Amino acid sequence: MISPESRANLVSKEHCGPNSPHQIDKPFMTQKWRDAIFVNWPVPAAAVARVIPNGLEPDLFNGTAWVSLVPFRMENLRIRHLPPIPGTSNFGEVNVRTYVRGPNGPGVWFCSLDVHAALATLVARTFYRLPYYHGEVSETQAATTSNWKVRRKRPEVVAGELEIEKLSTPVNDLLSVFLTARWRLYSGRSKKLRVAQVDHPPWDLSEAKIKKCTTGLVDHAGFDVSEATPTAYWSPGVPVRVTAPKLTR
Asked: Of 52, 75, 197, 245, which has the fewest CB atoms closer than 10 Å, so is most exposed?
């Protein structure tokens, strides 16, 4: 007999393969995610359960929940049928996310998203009910290194810094797929839980070596990762298509 825990893992692997399970022909929004980094820590499932609303539950890999720090550069952000909105097309973003299962299938729950573009913050909060914060986000990219700094100004000061070395070793194991190939995002609260579908090509992932990582954003989201050993990947990025959010079924 398959245990409930093993069954949950099998469901996650079935629905979170490297290729999108749906094709979005008329996206609400298009964008490109460039120079993406994924730093991932294993955490107890109870820690995730404390930060997500009713209607969602932690998604597990081999019985373990995960939280990730994900900086990337947003480029060419467009809402369908509208011209580019000044100040919202290209900017750096640093988010903290965890992995959940909900009424529409496995997906991502964002604990926070920090950007320097104030108008983009307003648009995302209005349309997607996502916890965007306005702060200072800067990056320095080189051929083999990537450095990110973030300083959230409101409602309280939270800061973080990440520096990685880009390695050439490709990554394509089950854990990396579980952590990066996510085709839904959930937002909102309890009875007004929303979901949006995400579609993009498979990630081109390689290993990353962490040279410096401060975990202020992760700590502030409610996770203690001081004793956890992180994994890290980097990718040149992918073009992305996203549907408009709707209430979960």
From this structure: 75
Does the predicted TM-score (pTM) go above 0.85? Answer: yes
Q: With CA atoms as reference, report the closest residue to 231 among 66, 5, 9.
A: 66
Per-residue pLDDT of the chain (249 residues; tens, 9 = 90+): 334 444 344 344 445 689 999 999 999 999 999 999 999 999 999 999 999 999 999 999 999 999 999 999 999 888 887 776 666 668 899 999 999 999 999 999 999 999 987 666 766 677 788 998 988 999 999 999 999 999 998 778 899 999 999 999 999 999 999 999 999 999 998 789 999 999 999 999 999 999 999 999 999 999 999 999 999 999 999 999 999 999 997
- Which residues, listed in sequence order, are joined to residue 107 by a DSSP beta bridge? 100
Contacts 24+ apart (CB under 8 A), 120-123: 120/74, 120/77, 120/85, 120/87, 120/88, 120/91, 123/79, 123/85, 123/88
How far out from the chain centre does Cα 132 lie? 12
Phi, psi of 155 (to 5 degrees): -75, -10
